[in-house]
Amino acid sequence: MAKTFRLDHPKQRADLYIQLAALERAGIAPIQALAMLDPPKTEDSDQLLQLLRSRLERGADWVETGRRYGLFTEFDAALLGAAATTGSLARTYQQLSEHYDAQARRRGQIRARLALPVAVLVLAGLIQPVPELVLGRVDGLGYLKLALLPLLPMGLGAYALFRLPAWFRGGALSPFRAGFDALLLRLPTLGRYQMRRNLRDFWSSLALLLEAGVPMLDAFPKALGTVDNLVLRAQLAPAERALKRGGDLASALRALPWPGPPEALSFVATGEASGELPALLRRYAGQEAERIARFDDALAEWLPRLVYGAVLALMAASILGSGAFMPSAALSAL
């Protein structure tokens, strides 16, 4: 398999595109820009840059070559290919940078919100066996065993939960992905927001593609590919066939058992009638992003409280059950 650049984190792509936008605005050609880029350093990165540069020197297409070597994703390459024909590469680089920067911020916020509950959980695990140590029932090594052994399965469980989506997408559990995606959509409240997150990505991607000049027949399947949930993607897929038969997007979506908020279809119909579909889709995607952010904030506010309550209850039950602070336990210890 040919080696490619590894840009696994959205922040890496955001940084790449902001550099490319600045260089494009300065009139620096891609072949000269390569010497100024700073992709993630790996043992192959210098070699890949040299290969990329040599292909460009031989007249290869910049966007297609970048896609081939992993500098651009399939979705990004579709956007950039259309932008290159219209002379709007700098603007598209900027849009992609903002797109990936928003993804990186969302990931960072989730990590920040999880940090304190995790710290409290670890602290609870360390405090729980303290009564046993105070009463002399265990020595220092025994205390560490009591403290760390329960944390190990919890840590492994948290890691498995974090990696579960990736395992279903492309790992050993991928044959069960459709069932997993269907289960996600059925979860109370969380399922509805899982659906809205996927549709937000779809609308945002479709707006970017249309703004870059990609025709609807080409833009729709590429935007559909950003829908991560397979069940939801299958529900939207028949609209592509309707578009190929010459229908408009609003009619194609209304013919489906539409899973999302009905106002989305109103935005589509208005956009197509007014000739401003990309702008209205971008506006609607932004409104959805705000609604989802408010839900995330509410979830981030209440979930730690539930975790803290459970931890405190566990600690209290452990301390009281040990008898460390009961008169009889104190006398027997003497």
Automatic annotation (TrEMBL):
Superkingdom field: Bacteria
Compartments where located: Cell membrane
Keywords noted in UniProt: Cell membrane, Membrane, Transmembrane, Transmembrane helix
InterPro entries referenced in this protein's UniProt entry, alphabetically: GspF/PilC, T2SS_GspF_dom, T2SS_GspF_sf
Type II secretion system protein GspF domain boundaries: 19-127, 204-320
tRNA processing listed as a keyword: no
Gene3D superfamilies: Type II secretion system (T2SS), domain F
Gene Ontology CC annotation, any one: plasma membrane
Membrane-related topology note: Multi-pass membrane protein
Transmembrane intervals: 114-131, 143-162, 306-326
Family, similarity comment: Belongs to the GSP F family.
Name recorded for this polypeptide: General secretion pathway protein F
Organism: Methylomagnum ishizawai
